[in-house]
Amino acid sequence: MKISEILNKEKLTISFEVFPPKTNSNFETVKVATEEIAKLKPAFMSVTYGAGGGTSQYTLDIAKNINNNYSVPTLAHLTCVSSTKETVRQKIKDIKAAGIENIMALRGDLTPELENSDRSTWDYRHAIDLIRDIKAIDEDFCIGGACYPEIHPESENQKEDIKYLKEKVDAGCDFLTTQMFFDNNLLYNFLYKIREAGITVPVIPGIMPITNGNQVARAIKLSGSFMPQRFKSLVDKFGTNPDAMKQAGIAYATDQIIDLYANGITNVHVYSMNKPEVAEKIQSNLFDILD
Ligand code: FAD
To answer: pLDDT, tens digit, for every residue of 153-164?
Structure first.
């Protein structure tokens, strides 16, 4: 099923993100964790893709299993930056053959190696090139794109970032999912600006429950997200107590989701990171709200 058809305009829906195993040896563990999350019957599940394609087969295997055996609509991520046209086009056809109707079309991060390589030889420069390829192969795919309430780290300024985002959406994005953020006001400001710029597709906020103190530094480094004082105090207090940090991180994420819904946002994507117990807890915290 297409994600564009299930995004609810009135009631709150929750979707979850999982990531594929890095090697075959932990495939089974990851598969079981993603199945536990699928049993919670989220609105949909997304499966990330290792930039460079090293784990790409696992993305498809995990996505196919959830889609076909658990009837949870699945969004397969695909990156393009360091891949050839031939490889990417084959991946798109494989996703189609697996019965998956949704692709999250991404450029992928520029590793230091890629940063220093000769870009004139690249087949793809930006996610928009991938979106055009997907459309050329099959008009029917439902396509998601990434967006950044706190601007993409490579962008000069937000105006430029939103200009390219509008071009990306016009090339064929059916919806956008945001980078994680920890202050909802940043999302509300971003939404105001993109709507003003003429971007009208649904935007699904991405919420990351921080459940372990060590995750914080990594999450900030990857996302460049602003940490509100309220969140910093919570990490200072509970960061060294794993059980307390998990409970506090889930409560903070739940609070963000409730505030989003109270302000008219009806679809939220949770970066559940292969942790069924976190996904389950968030759902149960929202039990009466989701009902
Ligand atoms: P783009 O849309 O290409 O944007 C990248 C930068 O280029 C931005 O600064 C943008 O303003 C600028 N830009 C865009 N178009 C143009 C243009 N035509 N000309 C000039 N500049 C332009 N990474 C993975 O490796 N695997 C994943 O599964 C994955 N999933 C993600 C899911 C979400 C929801 C998000 C938010 C990110 C995800 N990422 C993933 C990370 C993502 O690949 C990186 O953030 C990457 O740096 C940018 O990808 P993008 O698709 O947003 O790129």
So the answer is: 999 999 999 999
